[in-house]
C-alpha cells in the first residue's frame, strides 16, 4: 500500500512539472502556434476545476484526471521541438512555481465547492419540504 502511494505521488509530481513545461512552451517564441494552442487547452483543462466528466460520478469522474490529462500532456510534449522542449524543461526546473504549493488557489477552489455543495443541499431541502 505504501509503495503504491509513493508511486502515485511521484507520478503526480511529474504531471505537475510537465504542465509547467507546457506553460513555458506556450511562452517560448520558437514553439509553433498550433502547439501553443494545444498546450493552452491542455494546461487550462489541467488547472480547471471543471471536468468533462464530473468527479462526483463514481469511478468515471476521475477517469479524465487519470487518463485524459496525462495523455494530453504526452501528446503536446511530443509536438514541441526538441531544443525548445529541453529549454522549457530547464526553465521549469529552475522555477519556484513547480516547487511551491499554491494554497491560495486551493483554498478558493475548496470554498467554491463548499458553496456549490451548500447551495445544492439548500435547493433540495427547499424543494422537498
Question: What is the mean predicted local confidence, pLDDT?
Answer: 82
Strand content: under 5%
Total strands: the figure is 0
Q: Number of helical runs?
A: 6
Structural class, from helix and strand content? mainly alpha
In the predicted model, the low-confidence regions spanning at least 5 consecutive residues are none
Oligomeric state of the chains in view: single chain
**SSE string, helices as H and strands as E:** HHHHHH
Number of domains: 2
Protein name: DUF1232 domain-containing protein
Subcellular location: Endomembrane system
Membrane topology: Multi-pass membrane protein
Pfam families: DUF1232 (PF06803)
List the helices and strands and how they pair.
Layout (H helix, E strand, L loop, with lengths): L1 H26 L5 H15 L15 H17 L2 H13 L1 H4 L3 H26 L1
GO cellular component, one term: endomembrane system
Organism: Neobacillus mesonae
Protein name: DUF1232 domain-containing protein
Q: What would your notes on this structure say?
A:
- It is found in: Endomembrane system.
- This is DUF1232 domain-containing protein.
- Keywords: Membrane, Transmembrane, Transmembrane helix.
- Its main location: membrane.
- The chain is mostly helical and 129 residues long.
- The protein contains six helices and no strands.
- The relative contact order is 0.12.
- The longest helix is centred in the N-terminal third of the chain and has 26 residues, at 2-27.
- The protein folds into two domains: 2-94, no CATH class; 102-129.
- It is elongated, with a radius of gyration of 18 Å.
